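Write out a sequence, fold above all:
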Amino acid sequence: MKTVWKPFWSYDVKKTEKWLQAKALQGERLVEIKPLYRLFLFEASNQPQAIHYHIAYHKQQNHKLPLLLQQSGWGECCQRGRWYIFTNQQKTKDIHNYPVRREIIKRNRNIFYFFTALTMYVLLTLLLFVIMSGIIVFHHGNTLTFSPVFVWHTLLVISIGLAIIGIFSTIRLYQSNKHFW
């Protein structure tokens, strides 16, 4: 059993599906996903397979694959929480019906809005701090002194980390989902 950690896999599901297809061609079969921990569990198989993967997200946790998709060759590979991964072993030209991505698009849009707001908040807070520090130093002629309390260093590291994650997530979500919006 091989475990792979992919922290931002849900931001670009098409890229993740291509990665899963490449893994199947290398002889590794997807057995389970753990979305909370961002883990994919693979099992080594005897022979490589050409499998088409489709990732879906549904708010209902007991979602069943529609009959039309089952007749088109789609089957459930694994499911955890609201995440479903479907497989189809037919050739690409023979697949005419695909599961809908509407819920994943809506989810990614909401996450995009959250990270955009978080990034703006952190950056505006930082800008306010820089402006106030500049006014104190340059206008009043005083110097800034920071107490060596560990809390300030921790808050600085947390805010820089949030800014980096927020900027990265905002850019990544926008680039991978802009054709849906």
Summary: The mean pLDDT is 86. The chain has four helices and six strands. The first strand starts at residue 2 and ends at 5.
